[in-house]
Amino acid sequence: MLETLRRIVQEVNSAEDLSSALSVMVLRIKESMGTEVCSIYLLEPKSNQYYLMATQGLNQSAVGQTRMGYSEGLVGHVGQREEPINLEDAASHPKFLYLEETGEERFSAFLGVPIIHHRKTLGVLVVQQRDRRRFDQDEEAFLVTMSAQLAAVVAHAEATGTIDGTLFAGVESESARFDGISGATGIGIGKAYVVYPPADLKSVPDRAITNIKKELRTLNDAIKAVRQDMARLKVKAKVQLPKEEQGLFEVYERMLDDNALAGEIRAKVSEGNWAQGALRGVVQTHIRAFEAMDDPYLRARASDVKDLGLRVLSFLQEAKSSGNKIPPNAIVVGEDITPTVFVDMDRGNIAGIVSSHGSSNSHMSIVARSLGIPTVVGVAEFPLSRMEGRDLVVDGYRGEVVVSPSGAIRKHYKSIMEDERELSKELDEVAELSSETPDGHCMTLHVNTGLMADVTLSLERGAEGVGLYRTEIPFMVRDRFPSEMEQMEIYRQQLEAFHPKPVTMRTLDVGGDKALPYFPITEENPFLGWRGIRVTLDHPEIFLQQIRAMLWASESLDNLKIMLPMISSITEVEDAMHLIHRAFLEVLEEGAHIEMPQIGVMIEVPAAVYQVPEFCQQVDFISVGSNDLTQYLLAVDRNNRRVANLYQSYHPSVLRALQEIVTQAKAADTPVSICGEMAGDPRSALLLMAMGYDTLSMSASSLLRVKWVLRKISLSRSKEMLEEIWQMDNAAVILSHLDYVLEKEGLGGFIRPMHGSVHS
């Protein structure tokens, strides 16, 4: 059964469009199960009706014409219940709906399975037989498995616009929405510009061309170059390889003939697709065909086709590498976009970024936030190859991407952008003012930095220091560990830029979702593995070098503070303090004129919450990393789209832990700060102030918004709000309550950049 499933999936995936895929699916399921009927009904969301989209066994004339309401018939019953329905006599069931045009009255046995993708019902898969019988468990399991595969195909088609008015007769097209994770807030409207890694066939997009002759010349040059390369390798092979292995190069040469791959690729180019897109389409079709073959030898030829395709692609990309300019108002789209996009492209032309991989903590997201470019990451199943030139809206507030937005949606988002521009003008008014509440309480507002690009914006917005400098970023942009001198120069720039304001530098924090290309960490569960202080204590040579660089950088400035990440035990603090004092003595002996900086620990794991009193005896300050602490308390990876909705900063347990930390720190007379998303959210900032936190550290883009709200709400009112939420046991209720309170205060625009959404 597994082999049958594999072959069906391969054949479906190689289909040219959704209609072809559905036709293949019903035919193969009918054959595999030995049934007389297999049909697929898809739910059109706008009309909320099921359409018969493909069948083997019912009247073909009914395809695209037969429709029924959401709750009508056995099909609607399956969709509503969201579970399989297995009947031996369908006509006797009270939900049976007679549809004359289908010709299904002759069939008795009925098995229907819902097609569900990410909790959304997309359709129903049905098999039928004349005989009165129940389908057995194996048959039911097989159909459930096929429906899961079909769900991904249909969801992909929704995204690419295949499911539109041409598929659902008489129904207007609807904009497609994709959920992801917010990488950087803001709204971006523009056309998709697909970037892709070199020599990666699956990432190459389709791209329309006007000069077909020029593109054919480019293709011919690439094929000629590969032929020459093959000829050279063939000569070497005669010396180095057995005779039977030498034949591979002759196979490659034949594949490049006009009556083989090369001819098919040229035909695609002649139809108006650029050479790289044509190559991808032809090569992938052949790969799937070979993989579906029974003969093991022929199946293995799939890798040969792929290898040859990559060789041609590398020459094509080399030819195209000389200067593709990014157009204005471009939404940069890719599988895994790196910060180099900001170097290679004109930043002024980038209206937004969409990445199918990545996280809100990735280097690219951090850079995008500092530059104010709306970004959505982790957009699963985003059809990159068909996105080129499509109209997109990037909603960095909600973590959504809208493909082919309607006029109403476009108008809605443009009004939000205008509101944001007006709001920015108001926020600029408080840049030079203190963050003092109406009843005279002053909060210290720091910024999180990682790049020099963050510095100017932070200072312009009145940052009172740096609460978190991510030292791992200079490590991430290199192909090796930076030297002590290189680190010293980078740290010095940060310290000088903010002097005399304090700069808190976190020691190297890698592992989890932060990797160094030259220092890979491969683990089954990286978030519970070797990361943060655990890595640097195991590598004292790295830790000592970094501390020495920080100390030297602080000479004559004395505004350095050092912070230790991912602390879970007092032993780690003691070991780290030993190394820090050792480095301090070394630089003193070498002639440095410095003072011992303040040392702090980050509270990021639940174990640390209950050791704050012990930590306070060892260090000078406490800083809460709210992002990781929330994840660990709730056992939720916020970058995992399946469970991201469970990541709730306002969860009662999270709020109680935050209160416990600050209460313990205050009892020990130790300053306590917090960095992370909660610090940059005006709603939670008020609660944190009421709890007793001294300093809030956030991205520069959030600073003015938080400052404005703090200047409007008194400390006493914040404490009242805190007392009110202690009576609540639900994160959604707490958030709604805070929204309501601030709306009443006339501050709704500062806490919710989007005032509702449009789905039309």
Alpha-carbon distance between the two ends: 42 Å
Estimated share of beta-strand residues: 15-25%
What is CATH's topology name of the largest domain?
TIM Barrel
Report mean pLDDT, rounded to a whole number.
85
The CATH architecture of the largest domain is Alpha-Beta Barrel
Helix content: 40-55%
> Count the helices. How many?
27
Strand order of the largest sheet: 7-14-13-9-10-11-12-8
Number of strands: 22
Oligomer classification = single chain
Question: Any overview of this molecule?
Answer:
The chain folds into 3 domains: 2-160, GAF domain (Beta-Lactamase), CATH 3.30.450; 201-320, PtsI, HPr-binding domain (Enzyme I, Chain A, domain 2); 440-714, Alpha-Beta Barrel (TIM Barrel), CATH 3.20.20. The longest helix has 29 residues, at 212-240. The model is unreliable at 169-173 and 753-760 (pLDDT under 50). The protein has an 8-stranded mixed beta sheet, with helices on both faces. Strands 15-16-17-18-19-20-21-22 form an 8-stranded parallel barrel, surrounded by 6 helices. Strands 3-2-1-6-5-4 form a 6-stranded antiparallel beta sheet. Helix 2 (18-33) runs antiparallel to helix 4 and helix 7 packs across helix 8. The chain has 760 residues and is of the alpha/beta class. 45% of the residues lie in helices and 16% in strands.
